[in-house]
Write a structure and sequence with these properties.
The structure holds two protein chains of two kinds. Chain A is mainly alpha-helical. Chain A has two domains: about 170 residues, no CATH class; about 55 residues, no CATH class. Chain A contains 13 helices and no strands. Chain B has one domain. Chain B contains five helices and no strands. Classes of the chains: A mainly alpha, B mainly alpha. At the A-B interface, helix 2, helix 3, helix 4, helix 5 and helix 6 of A face helix 1, helix 2, helix 3, helix 4 and helix 5 of B.
Amino acid sequence: MRPIRSPFLRGCLASSPFVIVVVPFAVLFGVVATEAGLDLFQVMLFSFSVFAGASQFAAVQLMQDQAPVLIVLATSLAVNLRMVMYSVAMAPHLGAAPLGTRALMAYFLVDQSFAASQAEFEARPDQPLRDKVAFFFGSVTPIAPLWFVATFAGAAMGRAIPPEFALDFAVPITFLAIVAPMLRSLPHVVAAGVSIVAALVLVGLPYGAGLLVAAALAMTAGALTEVALERRAAR
Amino acid sequence: MKIDPATFWIVLPVLGLGTYLIRFSFLGMLGSRPLPGPLRRALRYTAVGILPGLVAPAVLWPPATGGAPDAARLAAACVTLAVGVATRSVIGAILAGGITLYTLLWLL
């Protein structure tokens, strides 16, 4: 096979495996958001303007639980804070692009384009800026249109699904499935454990504030565990 | 319960804009400086720190059963987690959890 020269096409290829994850996830979001009472227009607007699956699920879940606006926002934005790291990691590679291009790339900086581009730029850091930008846009090309189309499909079929399908449990299963593969290091396991225990203990706190406290404790516990492991390794 | 439209119309623009600014932050700023170590460390644990806590109450006390613990949902959650850890496959874990849930709901 001839190696693919075009950086745009290489980007498309690199993120194409993620399609298997993105499509069912987006369909599920469409279904769950529709069941929660949003209409087709609201669901699509949500996917377009936020474009971050996990935080969209979190926001829908909390709004459905009638949590106050501030709690919904704080929790969903906290879910997206990991993208600060993506932004930091992409800056040395894409930061020299014109402002308009960077503003557009920021919108498309999702889990999948980050994962594909990070791997590419680490393997071949010396390619020209133009190629890196092309690769980045390539890596989001299979993802973004499918995310919107699949959300639409899910929203369109949402109302047709009867309660026996136990869709109430689709969000817990999806979130557990996202988190499970991350539990590969001790600090991650500690953070997840603290998150669960603290959220259960603090479930009685008003306005869903228990989750925010649990998240802060869990992140601190993960970071401290990491520091402790590093200290031990250094000795 | 259904989502309150007023809540939705406040959450939508703020969450959209906030998420965008998070993405734009360092990519948008000229001259990228590295994040301070402790902050970078804590950010690594945002997803594992929030998502398990978000679902834990719904796993133990599902609203669909009026808050009574439910064997099918509990088992489905455990299977999802176990398959996800073992295979590192998100889709595999969702499928395993869904199959467990439906099988047990049908049997019990």
